Amino acid sequence: MADVTETQILEALKEIRDPDRGSDIVTLGMVSGLQVRDGHVAFAVEVDAKRGPQLEGLRKQAEGVVHRLPGVLSATVVLTAERPAEAAGGASGPAPGAARPPAAMLLPEIGAIVAIASGKGGVGKSTTAANLALALHAGGFATGVLDADIYGPSIPRMLGISARPTTTDDNKLEPMENYGIKCMSMGFLVDEETPMVWRGPMVGMALEQMMRDVNWGALDILVVDMPPGTGDAQLTMAQRVPLAGAVIVSTPQDISLVDARKGLNMFRKVDVPVLGIVENMSYFVCPHCGTRSEIFDHGGARREADRLEVDFLGEIPLDMAIRETSDSGHPIVVSDPEGDHAKAYLKIARTIGAKIAQAREAGAASRPRIVVE
Ligand code: ADP
Fold it and tell me: Which of 235, 250, 280, 294, by CA, is between 20 and 30 Å from 115?
């Protein structure tokens, strides 16, 4: 089937009229960020922040029109604010420090959503997220991974998934699955080579929608590989996604820890519990002579965890096998489950699992902050 073109999409969207402004959404210049990839279409409809809630129907209509075009497998449309309403805090939700919106409704079948975050890129956040998801699965949790790292969506590759998700008749996306883990990624919708120009508020909305419109089924834990850093996008996500907790990944040296600290403070500000810090690339053992070297220093994350009064979850060494296995789609937890590296991830996963169970019990006893039933 021939690929659908941007022109065809825009032509079809001219059918949709803005009820208040008397013309169609294309002529009014409301369609932005159009992305088409292998039949998966995503774009934003820019609306005035105040009208957002009334325009859900328009959003659905736009999705329907595009989904019906030949060659379209999925259509993801988000409403995004043209400009944030002044005092209201804009489309990115409440200001830092304000209470989070209630977690209800979104993902009622998911027990707990855990964010894996880092202050900056390249510290091994995605590698840790993939291996921890596999370790949680090995520990008996029904687990999924949502790859929200829009800057470098690498989870599908790490989990050995190359096919694309399909949609059901009601325009829901079926998550991909490998090694028993369900997986959905921004990378399925957006080409890895395409620079992402989506603005902060839109990222949160796109993500929320990816959770709402994906058939995750019943999961105990959904691991979210967060975008690195502490920009608008991350903050919006921390506020919009009903997170049960966050795990911060850092390398041992100071420079990385400064960033990790910022990440941690961001979660604290928006009232997301920090489950702990993982030190990645913690040390190196020479495969030839067995000498241990501390390439990026050692122990910094543990000291930082103590200082910030959060738990230190464990150390993962810098090792060729970890890189080769995750980059080739056979992460170490599945390719060498009895090895020391896998054991380190399994231990961290056990701690995370226990903390979530504890939080759920405490939540059930006081205020249910995750999803109880
Ligand atoms: P991030 O998500 O923080 O950007 P990635 O998980 O993509 O980082 O990792 C960046 C690179 O470092 C990848 O090639 C990955 O395989 C490698 N890597 C991550 N952790 C380790 C480790 N403990 N030992 C060796 N290589 C690692």
Answer: 294
Domain positions in the chain: 6-88, 102-361
Give the Å distance between the CA of 123 and the centre of ligand 1.
Answer: 6
CA of 281 to the centre of ligand 1 (A): 8
Put simply, whether the predicted model's pTM sits higher than 0.85 gets the answer no
Task: Give every CB contact of residue 220 below 8 A, 6+ residues apart in sequence.
Answer: 110, 111, 112, 136, 141, 142, 143
* CATH assignment, 6-88: 3.30.300.130
Q: How confident is the model at residue 172 (pLDDT cuts 50, 70, 90)?
A: confident
Tell me the pLDDT tens digit for each residue of 133-149: 999 999 999 999 999 88
User: Which atom of ligand 1 is the closest one to the Cα of 154?
Assistant: 7
Q: What is the whole-number distance in angstroms between the Cα of residue 270 and the centre of ligand 1?
A: 28
Where does ligand 1 bind, in terms of residues with CB under 6 Å?
Answer: 118, 121-127, 152, 154, 280-281, 316, 318-319, 322-323, 326-327
- CATH homologous superfamily, domain 102-361: P-loop containing nucleotide triphosphate hydrolases (3.40.50.300)
Percent of the chain at pLDDT > 90 equals 40
Ligand 1: centre distance to CA 159 (Å): 14
